[in-house]
Write the C-alpha cells for this entry.
Amino acid sequence: DAGITQSPRHKVTETGTPVTLRCHQTENHRYMYWYRQDPGHGLRLIHYSYGVKDTDKGEVSDGYSVSRSKTEDFLLTLESATSSQTSVYFCAINEDGADEQYFGPGTRLTVT
Amino acid sequence: KQEVTQIPAALSVPEGENLVLNCSFTDSAIYNLQWFRQDPGKGLTSLLLIQSSQREQTSGRLNASLDKSSGRSTLYIAASQPGDSATYLCAVHDTDKLIFGTGTRLQVFP
C-alpha cells in the first residue's frame, strides 16, 4: 500500500468553525490531491498540488484553501465550515500527473 | 467538459459468473484510464491503469480494455466471488487530474 495517512479520520464540528485536514505521504511523490465524495456526485476534485508551494483549483474549490510547505504534507482548510461541506474527504498522490493515483483512507467530516 | 458514465449503477450476480462493467467518456483525448475498487466505508484501491497507447491490461481475474476512439472501457471479472462485492469506479486522466464516474455497485452472492 502507498504510504498515505490522513488525519483526523473522523471529525464533527459546528457551522462557522475553521477546520484543517492533513494528508501525509512517505512516497516523496510530487503530486497531491484533495477530493470529496458525496452520494450522487461521486468523487470531485477540490484542489491539487504539483510541488511545494504550487497548487491549483479543482472542480469544487469554493470555501476551501490548501497549503503545501513540505513535499510530504498537504493541508486542506475550511475557513468557516458549512453544512454543505459535510462529506468524506480523500487525499491522493502520484509522481507524474497522469500516472497511477493512490488514495488515502479518507476523513469523514460532519458539520452540524 | 469531460464526462464519465458507468453502467449499470448496480449489479447482483451469483458466484462463479463472468461479468463486464462498462465505463464511457465523452472526450477521447485522455492520457490514461484507471479502475478502482471501493469497499463500504473505505478508501479507493487501484486495480488497473491503462495507458492511452494500450488497448488492455490484465491483473489476475481482472481484464480492462480501452477503446479511445469510441470513448469506452470495460472491466471484465472472471469467475466472480463474494469477495469481489464492492463499488467499482473508473476514472480518466485529463492532463494532471482524474475525472470519475459514479461507479457500479457489485454484489456477488453465494
Summary: Residues 92 and 98 of chain B are 6 Å apart (CA to CA). Chain B touches chain A through 21 residues (CB under 8 Å).
